[in-house]
């Protein structure tokens, strides 16, 4: 078990070096630019949906205006001299309604045009921002790679030490458990009991668990699945 804990300590050093890369300014900047790119794609999707809606409404208004033109031609061709007063009044009412409807559709078309121009402007601005972000991200990636190359020899050295220790591990079953849990993102794998708290997730353990641990000396935490050892 002593050898496994030594390997775990070496793995901890590797994780610390990896975190140096993840937390360096370039990595933080890259995450921000990645967020900008993701938000930009979502924004483009939204603008595209708005544009499709505008096109649909524009065709609808165009069809209405075409229909109104036909109505206008019918009204224009009617001979008012052959109509009585009520018919003329009805005709004027129809004409006024038609003028109002045409004016309303014209306003809608003008509004659609304004919205279209706004979408084009926003799309151009967004495209410029994304292009700049993409250029900047390439520079940032290079800096991250430089940092990764900086810590790579140290990581390789530690990994070599782990390889040297592995043949001397006596309990291969415990070591396999260690590697499986670590592969699943659980680390550290083996932790001590700290004042009735799990040394990993820091959750207080029930008394019946503590009693079982006193007997078995080693049990998986009910909360985080780390292996709790009774620290003598």
Give your account of this protein's structure.
- The chain has 232 residues and is mainly alpha-helical.
- The chain contains five helices and four strands.
- Helix 1 (2-22) packs across helix 3 and helix 2 (25-77) packs antiparallel against helix 3 (85-165).
- The mean pLDDT is 79.
Fill in the keyword field for this structure.
232 residues, mainly alpha, 5 helices
What's the overall geometry? elongated
Q: Report the average pLDDT across residues.
A: 79
As a percent range, the share of helical residues equals over 70%
Number of helices: 5
Low-confidence stretches: none
Radius of gyration, whole Å = 37 Å
Measured between the Cα atoms of the first and last residue, the distance is 14 Å
Which strands sit side by side, in order, in the main sheet?
2-1-4-3
Question: How many beta-strand segments?
Answer: 4
Oligomer category = single chain
The structure class reads mainly alpha
Order of helices and strands: HHHHEEHEE
Strand content: 5-15%
Question: Strand count, sense and closure of the main sheet?
Answer: 4 strands, mixed
């Amino acid at each position: 078990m002593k050898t496994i804990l030594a390997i775990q300590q070496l793995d901890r050093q590797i994780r610390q070096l990896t975190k140096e890369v993840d937390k360096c300014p370039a990595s933080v900047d890259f995450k921000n630019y990645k967020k900008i790119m993701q938000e930009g794609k979502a924004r483009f999707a939204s603008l595209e949906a708005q544009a499709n809606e505008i096109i649909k409404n524009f065709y609808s208004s165009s069809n209405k205006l075409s229909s109104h033109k036909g109505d206008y031609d019918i009204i224009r061709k009617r001979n008012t001299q052959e109509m009585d007063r009520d018919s003329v009044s009805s005709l004027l009412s129809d004409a006024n309604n038609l003028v109002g409807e045409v004016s309303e559709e014209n306003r809608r078309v003008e509004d659609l045009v304004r919205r279209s121009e706004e979408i084009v402007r926003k799309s151009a601005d967004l495209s410029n921002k994304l292009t700049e972000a993409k250029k900047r991200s390439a520079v940032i990636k290079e800096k991250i790679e430089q940092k990764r190359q900086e810590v790579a020899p140290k990581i390789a050295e530690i990994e070599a030490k782990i390889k040297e220790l592995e043949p001397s591990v006596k309990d291969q079953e415990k070591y396999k458990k260690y590697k499986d849990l670590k592969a699943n993102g659980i680390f550290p794998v083996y932790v001590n009991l700290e004042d009735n708290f799990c040394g990993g997730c820091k959750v207080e353990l029930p008394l019946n668990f503590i009693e079982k641990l006193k007997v078995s000396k080693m049990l998986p935490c009910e909360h985080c699945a780390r292996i709790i050892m009774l620290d003598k």
